[in-house]
Amino acid sequence: MDERSGANLVRPSEGGVTGRTVIGDPAAVKIAAIAARAVPGVYALGTGTGRALGAIRDAVGGSDLIQGVRVEVGQTQVAVDISLVADYGYPLNRLADSVRTAVYEAVVELVGLEVIEVNVEIADVHIPGLNETRSPDKGRSTGASVRTPIE
Fold it and tell me: How many independent structural domains does the chain possess?
């Protein structure tokens, strides 16, 4: 007989020993984030602002693996919200379905709770080369001189 309390499940283990297992929200979020990032066509998780803050954290040695992922864990169920940036060229509805399936399977398998929904928001599309910084020399013909300010 299982005794359920919050997101905890008390049951005998394979060895017959009973005890409570608590699966924290951060664990479920990380599992969902890893599954979503593994789907081909997912450029990044999160929105533009969140990604900019994540880039700053990465530059100073931190990392935010859970950016763009939110979970709500109930007694026996979990709901997941994913916000992502897609790579250009991937059909967005199929990408969302692939992310939904990957996250669902990972959470059911690794967290052990019933997934009631996986909501996917495609916040942006990454187009390679569009947002990259241009070098000051690009676009100049060979041998063109660099102007210096007149003093």
Answer: 1
User: Looking at the domain assignment, is residue 146 inside a domain?
Assistant: no
The CATH number of residue 101's host domain is 3.30.70.1350
Is residue 143 included in any domain, yes or no?
Answer: no
User: Residues 40-51: pLDDT tens digits?
Assistant: 999 999 986 444
Amino acid identity at 136: P
Residue located via tokens 């709770």? 113
The model's pTM = 0.69
CA dihedral 32, 36, 38, 43 (to 10 degrees): -140
Identify the band that residue 110 occupies on the pLDDT scale cut at 50, 70 and 90.
very high
What is the chain written as a DSSP string?
--EEETTEEE---TTS---EEE--HHHHHHHHHHHHHTSTTEEEES-HHHHHHHHHHHHTT---TTTTEEEEE-SSEEEEEEEEEEETTS-HHHHHHHHHHHHHHHIIIII-SEEEEEEEEEEEEE-TTTSSPPPTTTTPPTTPPPP----
Contact 79, 117 (CB under 8 A): yes
